[in-house]
Amino acid sequence: MTPSDWAAAVEFGRKLFAGPCDFVAAVPTIDRLPPITLTEVAFAGRSNVGKSSLVNALTGRSTLARTSNTPGRTQQLNFFSLGEKLLLVDMPGYGYAEVPKAEAARWAEVIDLYLRGRASLRRVCLLVDARHGVKKNDLDSMDWLDQRAVPYQIVLTKADKLKQKDREDLLAATAKTISRRPAAHPDIIVTSAETGEGIPALRAVLGLFAAA
């Protein structure tokens, strides 16, 4: 993409995410998925990685997606319509041990069925907490997505908590981790919901999937 094309994508993304964003559905079971009408992008990651905070930052709203300091708060697939051009899907987090096993198993089944069976899903933003880097359950998620050819892109969250040297090391390590993964997009987006870092870039990338 040329610099002028990228500038146009950033501006389109800004306008898209500044427009209306409406709650569509909270889906606890796969049979209650909304009908396919638009392209979808989903946000996945470990519990408390900042998925809901990132969705709020992208849309410029403070309460669109429910946030909490309590891991495991998001317990269903939450769908939001972005100007009737793109659906954003906030997914339950994984790896939170204190969730009852039966509940965790139910979440896992819903997520599994959604990710491998949703024809309108174009990309998964796989969020990784920059303070901790890629963990085993992140690698497990990458393995699952690779095996099922579900395209995903790493988005580092909470980058404002890192020093510059730590950030450089993290980017190098993360790039090495995904270098041979067939379903991983090679570009890593570094973000902070607190400072707004990386938000314009992520808006631009996701805007490429929006309906014309």
Automatic annotation (TrEMBL):
Domain of life: Bacteria
Domain EngB-type G positions: 37-212
PROSITE patterns: G_ENGB
A single BP term in Gene Ontology: division septum assembly
Classification via CDD domains: YihA_EngB
Keyword Cell division: yes
Cofactor entry: Mg(2+)
GO molecular function terms listed in the Swiss-Prot or TrEMBL record: GTP binding; metal ion binding
Family indicated by similarity: Belongs to the TRAFAC class TrmE-Era-EngA-EngB-Septin-like GTPase superfamily. EngB GTPase family.
Role of this protein: Necessary for normal cell division and for the maintenance of normal septation.
Protein name per Swiss-Prot or TrEMBL: Probable GTP-binding protein EngB
Native species: Elstera cyanobacteriorum
GN (gene name): engB
